[in-house]
C-alpha cells in the first residue's frame, strides 16, 4: 500500500471510530458550533450582497458529517442542499439530525472527496474542516472539479484551520494536515481560482488554530468587488458591513 492510500485509510478508520454527535464531528469542541455558524452566516450574507451574488437554488455540503452545516446554515438559505459524506453512520444520523428540514435535502453522495465528481451545478459549494484530509495533488484536482460544477455566479467556500507557523503541521491522530495561508493561496492558483473574499473567524477560544474563510470563483470570472480589488477582510464584523 502506498503512502497516499495509507493516509486515506487511516483517516477513514479514524472517522469510523468517532461517534455521530456534534461533539464527535467537532473533535470535542462542540461548544464552538454556535459561534462558528454565526460567523459563517455573516460570511454567506456578505456573498449574497455582492453585485453578482450566487443564486440560492442549490448548495453542496462537502464532508457533511451529521449535517451540522446543512441544518444550521445551508438548508435555511437554499432551496435544495446535496451532501457528500463517506462514513455510513454519519449518513444514517444525518436525516435524523436535520429533522424537519429533510424535505429540502437533495442527493446524498456516499463518497470520499478525492473521488467525488459533481454531476450537477451548484450555487455554493461549502467545504469546512475537511480539506486537510486531502493530499495536495488531490485537493487541486478536487477544487478544479468543484470549479467546473459552479453555476454562472457560483462560489466555492472554504473554511479551514490555518497554521500560523508558516509550515504544514501534521496530525497523526486523524491523518490530516493544517496548511499555512501561503500554501492555500498556491493551491487556489494551481486550481485557477481567485479569492473574492477572505475573513478570519472571530470569538473562538484561545489555544486553537486560526480559522479562515475564503470565497473562490474561477480565475477568468468577471467579479466587481469593492474598490476593484480582492476584499481581504480581517474580521467577521467587517464582512457584514
Automatic annotation (TrEMBL):
Record: residues binding S-adenosyl-L-methionine: 63, 68, 113-114, 128
- Span of the secretion signal? none
GO cellular component term, pick one:
cytoplasm
Could you confirm whether the keyword Methyltransferase appears in this record? yes
Which EC number applies?
2.1.1.244
Report the domain of life of the source organism. Eukaryota
Please give the family membership noted in the entry: Belongs to the methyltransferase superfamily. NTM1 family.
* Protein's name according to its UniProt entry: Alpha N-terminal protein methyltransferase 1
The organism that produces this protein has a lineage beginning with: Eukaryota, Metazoa, Ecdysozoa, Arthropoda, Hexapoda
Amino acid at each position: 500500500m502506498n503512502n497516499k492510500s495509507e493516509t486515506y485509510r487511516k483517516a477513514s478508520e479514524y472517522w469510523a471510530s468517532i461517534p455521530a454527535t456534534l461533539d464527535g464531528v467537532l473533535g470535542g469542541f462542540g461548544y464552538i458550533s454556535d459561534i462558528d455558524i454565526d460567523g459563517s452566516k455573516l460570511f454567506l450574507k456578505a456573498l449574497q450582497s455582492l453585485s453578482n451574488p450566487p443564486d440560492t437554488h442549490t448548495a453542496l455540503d462537502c464532508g457533511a458529517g451529521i449535517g451540522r452545516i446543512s441544518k444550521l446554515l445551508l438548508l435555511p438559505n437554499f432551496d435544495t442542499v446535496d451532501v457528500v459524506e463517506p462514513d455510513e453512520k454519519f449518513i444514517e444520523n444525518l436525516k435524523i439530525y436535520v429533522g424537519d428540514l429533510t424535505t429540502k435535502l437533495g442527493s446524498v453522495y456516499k463518497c470520499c472527496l478525492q473521488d467525488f465528481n459533481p454531476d450537477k451545478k451548484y450555487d455554493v459549494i461549502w467545504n469546512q474542516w475537511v480539506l486537510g484530509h486531502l493530499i495536495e495533488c488531490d485537493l487541486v484536482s478536487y477544487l478544479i472539479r468543484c470549479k467546473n460544477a459552479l453555476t454562472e455566479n457560483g462560489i466555492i467556500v472554504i473554511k479551514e484551520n490555518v497554521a500560523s507557523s508558516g509550515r504544514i503541521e501534521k496530525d497523526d491522530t486523524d491523518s490530516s494536515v493544517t496548511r499555512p495561508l501561503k500554501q492555500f493561496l498556491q493551491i487556489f492558483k494551481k486550481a485557477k481560482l481567485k479569492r473574492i473574499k477572505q475573513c478570519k473567524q472571530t470569538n473562538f477560544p484561545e489555544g486553537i488554530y486560526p480559522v479562515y474563510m475564503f470565497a473562490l470563483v474561477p480565475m477568468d470570472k468577471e467579479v466587481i468587488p469593492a474598490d476593484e480589488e480582492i476584499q481581504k477582510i480581517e474580521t467577521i464584523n467587517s464582512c457584514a458591513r
